[in-house]
Amino acid sequence: MVSPKLRSKSFRRTYVKLPSGKSKIHYNEKKNGSAKCQICNRPLQAVPTNKVNNLSKSEKRPQRVFGGVLCHECVENLIKQAVRGNS
C-alpha cells in the first residue's frame, strides 16, 4: 500500500519502466510555474519559482510598484499613461 502522504494529488505520478519489464509508479512533487506578467503574459524576472514558503516577503518579489505582478515595461507604460492623462 502507498504511504498516506503519497496518496495526495499534490504529488505527480510518473510511470517508470523497470529493466524487468514491469512498470512502477514514482511520486514526484509538482514544480511551480514561473510568475507571469498580468498584461503581456511574459515571465517575470527576479521572482523565484520554487520554495517560496521559506523566503521572506522582500525576497519573494521586487520592491517597486506592481513588483511581482507586472513586468518593468508594462509598469513603465502605465506610469507614462498616468502622467499624460490617458486612462
Automatic annotation (TrEMBL):
It comes from the Archaea. The keyword Ribonucleoprotein applies. Keywords: Ribonucleoprotein, Ribosomal protein. InterPro entries: Ribosomal_eL34 (IPR008195), Ribosomal_eL34_C_sf (IPR038562), Ribosomal_eL34_CS (IPR018065), Ribosomal_L34e_arc-type (IPR047868). The keyword NAD does not apply. One of its GO terms (biological process) is translation. HAMAP family: Ribosomal_eL34. Belongs to the eukaryotic ribosomal protein eL34 family. This is Large ribosomal subunit protein eL34.
